[in-house]
């Protein structure tokens, strides 16, 4: 009798814990517990950030030293390549400055919001993809730095200026989580080619190319064309931020849409610093 | 459980979390990183049986969920199942076998990754099933296989001793 009660106990524990998990998942998904779980995540992320940065501060120099001593030749080659890139970027930078000035003047004349006129908060990328199942990054700024949920995040320094990286999906006090445009849940309204041509750029997971939805069949989309954010009324992103470049197009036999694949312009696998655009869609 | 035992369990869970969030996130092979958090319910199931495995899976899963962008409670749910299943599956096995922790780590890691992705996609995150699932499962399993024995020793140190009545006892010292 006593033995049977003892053998039943783990099953009762299992049932209780599974029910508790299902309740938490359901309440979080339906919004009932969203503010509570969001608060817990916020407190956990803020409390864990110093621990993470402390441990990283200890292990990173050791890792860099070991990697540097093993790959000395490769590091030297990379250094030369980077110096060459800096010279090329300096030349491109002076050209793009002139283009940006012209664009700013035109945007001001047409009363269009322009990313160059919007305030941004620079942020260091503190962690990259904490889960294998979501393409996200953690950044070292949060609500205390005026960063709010859904704000766009860009990376700077490219020949086309700022490039779209993603969107803030969790804003804590001192840190925030950004969903990258490659994440399977990401969808960005974009413009391309002829005026009025609209497409949705969808993520397919980390490391996978993006795809464009809503491109009508037989539309000519040249390889290399850059898609930019649409900035339509109430849009989540301000207009004209370059998102991705077309790498291939295909028309299926009985397809109703062009199959367009794109490569993000920002190097999402090697982000060190980004900028959060202080953009409120409700005021756009 | 005495406060001393509770402190030991918290210390082990926190250590795993710190290693996962720092060292493991920096190890990236083909865009995938190891996930050692699944070792906790696996080891607890192996050391303490299904009940303790489930409890450890729920607790460590909830802690991990606080720092993950995936649905809150999902790691707790899958961790509970893994801990219970490992405990139940190894009840009739000689737990002193040297290969048992490694085998349990491989199987539980593979199951964990697949079930996690499947449940996530059912829970409104369809993109979770479109990740490189095979690569993720294999990498997580290989890393956890290597770390299985130290993980089991740590969890055995942290968990209070249980009655081994009806369970094959350890003679080699792995679970002592």
What is the fold's blueprint, element by element?
The complex is a heterodimer of chains A (284) and B (176).
Chain A: H1 2-30, H2 34-70, H3 72-109, E1 120-128, E2 136-139, E3 152-158, E4 161-171, E5 176-180, E6 187-191, E7 198-202, E8 210-213, E9 226-229, E10 242-251, E11 258-264, E12 273-277
Helix pairs in contact in A: 1-2
Chain B: H1 3-26, H2 39-48, H3 50-65, H4 74-89, H5 100-122, H6 133-158
Keywords:
heterodimer; A: 284 residues; six-stranded antiparallel β-barrel; 12 strands; 27% strand; B: 176 residues; mainly alpha; globular
Low-confidence stretches of chain A: none
Structural class of chain B: mainly alpha
In this structure, how is the largest beta sheet of chain A organized? 6 strands, antiparallel, barrel
**Could you give the count of β-strands of chain B?**
0
Give the strand tally of chain A: 12
Question: Helix tally of chain A?
Answer: 3
Gyration radius of chain B, rounded = 15 Å
Morphology of chain B: globular
Calculate the terminal CA-CA distance of chain B, rounded to whole Å: 18 Å
DSSP helical segment count of chain B: 6
Radius of gyration from the alpha-carbon trace of chain A, in angstroms:
23 Å
In helices, the fraction of residues of chain B equals 55-70%
The SSE string of chain B, one letter per element, is HHHHHH
Bin the helical content of chain A: 25-40%
Oligomer: heterodimer
Mean pLDDT of chain B, nearest integer? 88
Binned strand content of chain A:
25-35%
Mean pLDDT across all amino acids of chain A: 83
Largest two-chain interface: A-B, 51 and 54 residues
């Amino acid at each position: 009798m006593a033995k049977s009660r003892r053998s039943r106990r783990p099953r009762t524990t299992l049932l209780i814990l599974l029910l508790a998990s299902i309740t938490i998942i359901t309440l979080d998904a339906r919004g009932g517990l969203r503010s509570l779980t969001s608060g817990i995540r916020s407190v956990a992320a803020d409390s864990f950030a110093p621990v993470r940065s402390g441990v990283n501060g200890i292990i990173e120099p050791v890792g860099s030293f070991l990697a540097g001593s093993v790959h000395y030749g490769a590091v030297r080659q990379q250094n030369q390549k980077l110096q060459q890139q800096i010279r090329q970027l300096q030349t491109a930078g002076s050209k793009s400055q002139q283009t940006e000035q012209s664009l700013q003047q035109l945007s001001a004349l047409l009363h269009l919001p322009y990313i160059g006129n919007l305030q941004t908060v620079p942020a260091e990328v503190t962690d990259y993809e904490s889960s294998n199942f979501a393409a996200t990054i953690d950044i070292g700024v949060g609500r205390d730095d005026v960063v709010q949920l859904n704000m766009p995040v860009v990376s700077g320094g490219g020949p086309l200026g700022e490039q779209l990286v993603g969107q803030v999906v969790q804003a804590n006090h001192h840190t925030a989580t950004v969903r990258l445009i490659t994440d399977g849940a990401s969808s960005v309204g974009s413009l391309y080619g002829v005026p009025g041509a609209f497409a949705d750029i969808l993520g397919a997971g980390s490391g996978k190319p993006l795809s464009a939805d809503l491109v009508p069949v037989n539309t000519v989309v040249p390889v290399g064309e850059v898609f930019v954010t649409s900035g339509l009324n109430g849009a989540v992103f301000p207009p004209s931020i370059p998102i991705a470049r077309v790498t291939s197009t295909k028309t299926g036999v009985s397809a109703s849409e062009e199959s367009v694949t794109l490569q993000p312009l920002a190097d999402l696998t090697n982000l060190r610093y980004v900028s959060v655009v202080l953009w409120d869609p409700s005021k756009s | 459980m005495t406060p001393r035992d509770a402190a030991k369990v918290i210390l082990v869970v926190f250590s795993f979390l710190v290693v996962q969030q720092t060292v493991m996130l920096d190890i990236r092979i083909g865009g995938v990183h190891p996930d050692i958090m699944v070792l906790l319910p696996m080891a607890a199931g192996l050391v303490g049986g299904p009940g303790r495995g489930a409890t450890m899976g729920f607790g460590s899963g909830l802690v991990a969920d606080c720092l993950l962008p995936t649905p809150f409670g999902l790691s707790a749910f899958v961790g509970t199942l893994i801990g219970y299943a490992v405990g139940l599956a190894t009840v009739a096995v000689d737990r002193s076998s040297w290969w048992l922790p490694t085998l349990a780590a491989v199987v539980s890691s593979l199951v964990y990754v697949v079930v996690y992705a499947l449940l996530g996609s059912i829970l409104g995150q369809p993109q979770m099933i479109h990740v490189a699932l095979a690569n993720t499962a294999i990498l997580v399993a290989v890393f956890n296989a290597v770390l299985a024995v130290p993980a089991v020793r740590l969890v055995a140190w942290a968990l209070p001793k249980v009655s081994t009545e009806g369970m094959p006892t350890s003679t080699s010292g792995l679970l002592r």
